[in-house]
Amino acid sequence: MVTSTASSPATTGVAAGRPQPQTTVEAPGGPFIRHSQDGRRSQYIAQPSFGGLVANPMVASPGYNKGYRLKVTAATQGATVATLIVGGDGVFPVGQLVTLKDAFGTPIIVAPGFHAFYLIPMLSGQFGVDETQDISSLPSWSQASTATGAFQFSTYLPWEFSKAYGLISGANASLLPTLQVNVGPTSSIWSTLTGTAPTLSFQLDVDFYWLPQGVAVEPPGIGTTCQWVLQPCNPTIGSSGALNVQLPRLGGYLTTMIFELRNALGLRCTENGTTDIGWPARPRFLVDGVPLVDTDIQTLFDDMAIGMSIGSVPGAIPAGLKSAAGTAGTVQISKPNGVISLTRKTALNQRMFGLLESGEIFLSTNPGTQIEVAGFPWGTLLNAPATLNALVGQVVPSGQLIQGLPEV
User: Fold this and answer.
1) What is the 3-state secondary structure of 281-312?
2) For the CA atoms of 165, 159, 60, 117, what is the dihedral angle to 10 degrees?
3) Is the pTM of this model over 0.90?
4) CATH classification for the domain delimited by 33-396, as one of 3.40.50.300, 3.40.50.720, 3.90.1530.10, 2.70.9.10
5) b/e string for 280-309 if b means 16 or more Cβ within 10 A?
6) Which residue ranges make up each domain of the chain?
7) CA 203, CA 249: separation in Å to the nearest integer?
8) pLDDT tens for residues 205-258?
């Protein structure tokens, strides 16, 4: 006789739908990142027109936000012949002005699309390492079509500048960051565009750390911000002029200084071309009148390759963005015309390691600190005068700056 096993102890006490036990909880003690997990959540998908505005409300996340992932797609809507502006900023002027602020109005990023979408991820150390710093080397990149004008890129608008440092709370819907993108007109991207303009789509997600489970721990230095605001320097620069150009007064701790030189037409100057060379052969960077760096510009390019991997790794060439050396089909990663950079994120090595950063050598400044860039002389300009723009990563701590590696 076969014995029934319907009431066997092995099958009793199991209720359908009972939540599974949480298996990822760590024992109490240790840093914030030990008790949290990386997450991502959708914010919105917007379909603005060229010349329009994207300012959709944000959605709360159950944790601490660290940056926005933005994918911009331009899909063709008809037979179009599209020619990018020669010497321009590629497709990135699709963001004419990008304004990212926290809930209290503190600016996190205020810059045109070329700087916010392209230069900050590349040079800040807050997104990617090596070739992935250049968003044109990512799988999501689609070069602008010269037949239809279609393109696609994914970028990152960060505020986390060291691992788990610089976060903004995302759980309170009334305290979320705000993002506004003034969409540029088609004429800011294409010198020639016939037929129907592409249709735009902005897809925004947020990267965040989940709230720790089973332990009360906050990320380090909550309330600390790393701010990126593009500002013009003074005075303007005449052809072969010999002068010091002053940055606007800053304050806080400087992580990276990005400098961009544009001629009177608004186009970036070159370093190795035949017209509007702009940059001095030996630039000086002075702090309160003292030359902090006095260097040959080619040596400075070497420093960017060593410290930031800019100019040392083969990569794709976005049209209109790279130096003349890239015309053959590949070029060292992301040396945009007219752009140089000095980083203070090399405390752990001579190489910048993204979010692995101790902050030990951030440049401490206050509103009285005067930073200047000097050229004796500056380069040759056919379209004078040139304007030097500064995009500086500036950490404003809540309390004292945390140095070292608090998350290890």
Assistant:
1) CCCEEEECCEEEEECCHHHHHHHHHHHHCCCC
2) -150
3) no
4) 2.70.9.10
5) bebbbbbeeeeeeeebebeebbebbbebbb
6) 33-396
7) 35
8) 999 999 988 788 899 999 999 999 999 999 999 999 999 999 999 999 999 999
